[in-house]
Amino acid sequence: MNEVTRNNNFGMLHLAAAFFVIYGHQYNLLNQSAPVILGNQVHELGLKAIFLISGYLIAKSLFSMSGSRKKVTVIYLVKRFGRLFPEFLFCLIITAFLIGPLFSTLTIKEYFGSMDQIIFYIKKNLLLYPIFNLPGVFTDNPYVGAVNGSLWTMPIEFFMYFIFLLIMLPFKNRNRQRIIYTLSSAGIFILWSIKMIYFQQERWVLYGTDWVTALNIIVYFVIGGGIYIWGLKPKFNIQKSLFLFFILCAVRFNMTFINEIICMIALSCCIFSLGFADKQSLNLSWIHPECAYGIYLWGFPVQQCIINIFAITGKIHSINLLFLISAVISYILARISYSWVYKPFKKISDSIVKYLDHRL
């Protein structure tokens, strides 16, 4: 996840995608089927849009860096760690030590008596090994026990940071980097195609992550990176792209593989034609688009809290109202997280980067 508000609309698109994830999850957390767009449930489409944007911005950040391999590597990793982990750790701590005891079926004494499980939750997730349960938390909810299901994508995104670095690092020549990126992208696309055609139901879990399922979003990260690396920005005309997007929304085939190819084309056209439109034309002064990452982190646990309070008592029946309440609270928490956690850490990160830039 990167700073996304500079001279483009990707910040607001990232924010909208995060809200798409929350909206789709609202249905799933009540054991209902979410609305479908382009053959994907709303939250799946939002997640793929997030990975498209992240792929583009990470490629732009990395492939525009200059200097020795050591310098590029160290500064790149400092920036990525500084963006990904401070808010992530803050979310884990608040979830484990505040949300957990308030929404556990255990007494506060019993909950904190399971301190080993609480520390395990924080430690493992921070090490990017997804753990979803805390002692007795949300066990009465329709979607039982999962405290923050969104954390499953964290190791995938971090993995892609390293893949991009490994592609770029061996070669300083930009043309060679493009060639290696193209070959690597083709390999990932072939793996994804084989998975979609022959092994849709297969699972391959390594380090707590199903990497077969992960291919569904990895391929979007790669496409996003390719848009920058292959210099395709001039190809995105907003009128033509959005016309194609709406046409493709109406097209359906019997093969899931073909439908997903259509989704890739349509979603890429929509995201990048809007992203490259008049500078910041989508931005609103009263919404901070860099809160998108925080919204993604907070959305799931906030929704589980709201459902636990209201939905299971029958006091709120409207999914749209539940979504609205969850979205507002998630945005507030994301804004707090961004201002109180990310920005102070960013000052430290910027100081480290400035020091390394002169020393390496």
Explain this structure:
The longest helix is centred in the C-terminal third of the chain and has 41 residues, at 319-359. The protein is mainly α. The protein contains twelve helices and four strands. A two-stranded antiparallel ribbon has the order 1-2.
Key attributes of the depicted protein:
mainly alpha, two-stranded antiparallel sheet, 68% helix
Please summarize what this structure is.
With 360 residues, this protein is mainly alpha-helical. The protein has 12 helices and 4 strands.
Layout of helices and strands:
Layout: H1 10-28, E1 36-37, E2 40-41, H2 42-63, H3 69-103, H4 108-112, H5 115-126, H6 154-168, H7 174-198, E3 205-206, E4 209-210, H8 211-229, H9 238-249, H10 256-275, H11 292-309, H12 319-359
Antiparallel strand pairs: 1-2, 3-4
Helix pairs in contact: 1-2, 1-11, 1-12, 2-6, 2-8, 2-10, 3-5, 3-11, 3-12, 7-8, 9-10, 11-12
Give the strand order, joined by hyphens, for the main sheet. 1-2
Largest sheet: 2 strands, antiparallel
Fraction of residues in helix: 55-70%
Mean pLDDT: 90
Measured on Cα atoms, how large is the radius of gyration?
A: 21 Å
